[in-house]
């Protein structure tokens, strides 16, 4: 029997703090203070904590900072003051979120010029360091003066690996190459938006030369360019690409010349550019070009005064005049379509969301030349088709009256047409070049614009498919990732109204011509041929508005949309890194979709990931736009 006066012993239970063995997460902390610890070397484990935003390693015994510091991409504050540092790592410029860098009371004598790319840096503390000239004078003047000097004088840039054409297999048939390139309009390439880029790299004179170099190097048969402004088309690209010879050695920037403190800023840049000219001069002096082209500016062109019209950008298509004849072309102005298409009358959401977005798409019909017509001064081209065009030799500023008139028709055929063209009969290539709305908050607008260009393509394909083979290329800057409705709609031929997610109906035997059994989804050809509408404006039924258009009323498309083009992505499995790269964004948003009587037979490899890891963003000295050139090789089926 237990003694009631003797209390029971309670079993011992060790108390363990629930946080003691908890793995640190970004939710629990985002900073690290290891100051005043007498640390001489930094553990590599530190650089795995990529989520930290504040790092204090001041008042230690560090003699160097490892280059791996660049892995801490989220750092906002870095304090390395009161150590024994003699230099800063060159890779520190990759910390593009850094706002404060404290490196006072060290033994630093020189500054890596790459530090000028820290465009968000607001505080740079280098007090009590034995800085040599000109760093000392510039730092005493202001922190911004030092950063600006470093940025403008830096000519130490990584060189990307050469990009190559990869062919899949040997195929019979006519082979053609297609490219797409957003060249970054000079009006948009300002130091306000691209603070990390030196002014001499951002300069349009330098960038346009480098862009021309890439175009000539890749030498595709059909080239779609976005953000081409009217002045650049008229005064530079059209004359250089559509004349017989590009002469004189086109200047540019590139290569890899190291800078020195004794060399002035201007001399430094001139040496850098001169080295590039010498290495590329021979290539340009003997280059024959066989392009014709057409160009349409955005709709705002018509409302601008003569002084500013030339700065309006648009879309251009260059094509090999030895291989193709242009039969017709048109500009699809999305905001104009909203106002003129009766399907969108009284649709307030469509009007409000789209009327101020002046993005465009350009479509052209190219006919593959037959051997009997090619190389004989104009082929079978009907001059009546040129009634709405302006000759490229005339002054665009004096002649352009309307966006639809802005195209080049100076057709100059040569006699070096390849023999295989003789066997090509009645083959039409429908090319669309599009630049969709950029704003990520307007995904409904992007989808709507892509639907409009698809509808125009379907009408033209229907027109020509009974005349011969039809090949389709839809190229451009879609400002949409692969997981978006825009991409899914184009590749699958359908956008589902219940989930906003497309699926590949090509593998579904229950789907006939991509229209469901209830005929509730909208298809432009079906609507025209049967004169039916999927929305009744006279009844009181509410439209089935789903997340497909972010809850906005898009009239005939509320129940979904289908098309019959059977388009595929050229780089579906090969280009997964980036076609656009800035400090705030990196992803694939440029595409070349193909369909009809053509199959892909090769691709141009992307920019290597190692290069992207060594630059803050584009444009750079080697890549003159914030987008990269993409290309594919195709074979027209026999």
From TrEMBL:
Reaction(s) catalysed by this chain's protein: Exonucleolytic cleavage of poly(A) to 5'-AMP
Top EC class, one word: hydrolase
Domain of life per record: Eukaryota
Cellular component terms per the entry's GO annotation: cytoplasm; nucleus
Alphabetical keyword list: Cytoplasm, Exonuclease, Hydrolase, Leucine-rich repeat, Magnesium, Metal-binding, Nuclease, Nucleus, Repeat, RNA-binding, Transcription, Transcription regulation
UniProt GO MF annotations: metal ion binding; poly(A)-specific ribonuclease activity; RNA binding
EC number, UniProt record: 3.1.13.4
Localisation per UniProt entry: Cytoplasm; Nucleus
Gene3D superfamilies xrefs: Endonuclease/exonuclease/phosphatase, Ribonuclease Inhibitor
Similarity comment: Belongs to the CCR4/nocturin family.
Protein name as it appears in the record: poly(A)-specific ribonuclease
Organism: Hamiltosporidium tvaerminnensis
Source species taxonomy: Eukaryota, Fungi, Fungi incertae sedis, Microsporidia, Dubosqiidae
């Amino acid at each position: 029997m237990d003694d009631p006066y003797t209390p029971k012993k309670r079993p011992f239970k060790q108390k363990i703090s629930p946080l003691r063995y908890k793995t640190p997460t970004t939710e629990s902390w985002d900073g690290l203070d290891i100051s005043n610890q007498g640390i001489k070397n930094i553990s590599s484990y530190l650089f795995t904590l990529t989520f930290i935003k504040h790092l204090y390693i001041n008042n230690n015994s560090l003699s160097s900072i490892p280059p791996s510091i660049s892995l801490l991409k989220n750092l906002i504050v870095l304090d390395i003051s009161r150590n024994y540092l003699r230099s800063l790592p060159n890779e520190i410029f990759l910390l593009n979120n850094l706002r404060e860098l404290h490196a006072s009371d060290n033994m630093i004598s020189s500054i890596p010029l790459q530090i000028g790319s820290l465009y968000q840096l607001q505080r740079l503390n280098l007090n009590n360091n034995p800085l040599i000239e000109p760093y000392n004078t510039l730092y005493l003047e202001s922190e911004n003066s030092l950063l600006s000097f470093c940025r403008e004088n830096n000519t130490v840039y990584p060189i990307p690996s050469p990009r190559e054409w990869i062919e899949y297999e040997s195929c019979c048939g006519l082979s053609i190459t297609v490219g797409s390139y957003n060249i970054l309009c000079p009006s948009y390439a300002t130091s306000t938006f691209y603070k990390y880029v030196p002014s001499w790299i951002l300069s349009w004179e330098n960038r346009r030369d480098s862009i021309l170099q890439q175009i000539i190097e890749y030498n595709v048969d059909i080239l779609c360019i976005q953000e081409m402004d009217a002045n650049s088309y008229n005064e530079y690209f059209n004359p250089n690409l559509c004349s017989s010879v590009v002469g004189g050695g086109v200047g540019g920037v590139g290569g890899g010349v190291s800078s020195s403190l004794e060399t002035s800023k201007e001399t430094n840049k001139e040496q850098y550019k001169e080295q590039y000219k010498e290495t590329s001069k021979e290539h340009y002096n003997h280059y024959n070009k066989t392009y014709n082209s057409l160009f349409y500016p955005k709709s705002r062109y018509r409302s601008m005064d003569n002084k500013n019209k030339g700065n309006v950008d648009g879309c251009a298509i260059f094509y090999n005049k030895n291989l193709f004849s242009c039969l017709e072309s048109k500009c699809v102005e999305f905001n104009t379509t909203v106002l003129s298409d009766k399907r969108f009358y009284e649709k307030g959401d469509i009007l409000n969301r789209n009327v101020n977005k002046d993005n465009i798409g350009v479509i052209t019909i190219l006919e593959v030349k037959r051997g009997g017509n090619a190389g004989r001064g104009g082929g079978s081209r009907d001059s009546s088709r040129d009634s709405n065009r302006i000759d490229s030799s005339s002054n665009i500023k004096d002649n352009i009256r309307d966006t639809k008139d802005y195209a080049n028709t100076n057709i100059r055929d040569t006699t070096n047409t390849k023999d295989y063209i003789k066997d090509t009969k009645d083959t039409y290539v429908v090319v669309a070049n599009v630049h969709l709305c950029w704003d990520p908050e307007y995904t409904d607008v992007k989808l709507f614009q892509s639907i409009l260009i698809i509808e125009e393509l379907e009408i033209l394909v229907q027109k020509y498919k009974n005349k011969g083979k039809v090949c389709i290329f839809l190229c451009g800057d879609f400002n949409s990732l692969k997981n978006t409705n825009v991409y899914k709609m184009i590749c699958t031929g359908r956008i589902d109204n219940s989930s906003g997610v497309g699926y590949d109906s090509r593998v579904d035997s229950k789907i006939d011509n991509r229209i469901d059994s209830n005929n509730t989804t909208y298809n432009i050809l079906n609507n025209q041929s049967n004169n039916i509408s999927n929305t009744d404006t006279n009844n009181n039924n509410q439209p089935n508005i789903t997340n497909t258009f972010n809850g906005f009323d898009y009239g005939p498309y509320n129940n979904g949309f289908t098309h019959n083009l059977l388009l595929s992505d050229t780089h579906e499995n090969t280009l997964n890194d980036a076609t656009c790269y800035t400090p705030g964004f990196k992803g694939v948003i440029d595409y070349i979709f193909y369909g009809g009587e053509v199959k892909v037979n090769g691709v141009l490899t992307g920019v290597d990931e190692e290069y992207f890891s060594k630059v803050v963003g584009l444009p750079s000295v080697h890549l003159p736009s914030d987008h990269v050139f993409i290309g594919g090789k195709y074979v027209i089926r026999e």
